[in-house]
Amino acid sequence: MISRGSQGLASPLLFGLLAFAANSAHAETIRAKLDGYQVVSTQSTKGSGSFRATLDRNAKLIRYELTYDNLEGDVLQSHIHFGRPGTNGGIVAFLCTNLGNEPPTVAHPKPKCPGPRQGTVRGIIKPGDVIYLKFPNVFPDTQLIEPGEFDELAAAIDAGAAYVVVHTAAQPPGELRGNIPGKGQNRP
Fold first, then answer.
1. Which pTM does this prediction carry?
2. Count of beta carbons in the 10 Å neighbourhood of residue 22
């Protein structure tokens, strides 16, 4: 039997769980396996990683978990980039950084990357976290994703035109990369 005092706590908790379950019904799972072979240009590394996330279009958020292990250089930062497999593209969302280089426009600062050569980081990407930063040697200079355009990021993920990179001191352009499969491309 629930006492009168604990009933007041149970109602908000139950409401929160029901609201989370309702929102989760709209979430899609996305995953990427990270290795050096997907990096452009390909890297030989013992490192590996995984990216798992839920993309909720209704709530306009992505909850993610990035894990990396056995890196050959200390981790510097990690991002989601906009580009198809075999190409490089601009940065559209930070996952973690040890460089303090997140643009001031990012609404929710991302955590430090754990390490130095292995770790797991979790976070949330909301519309205010979507940015566009040019990546070296990518032309044109802009890829037409503007800050805050969450739906554009979701569309790029659906099209198989987004990837995750872990940048390290040994390979600043990227030691690990994982292309995020688009809809209909073996998504779990």
1. 0.83
2. 10
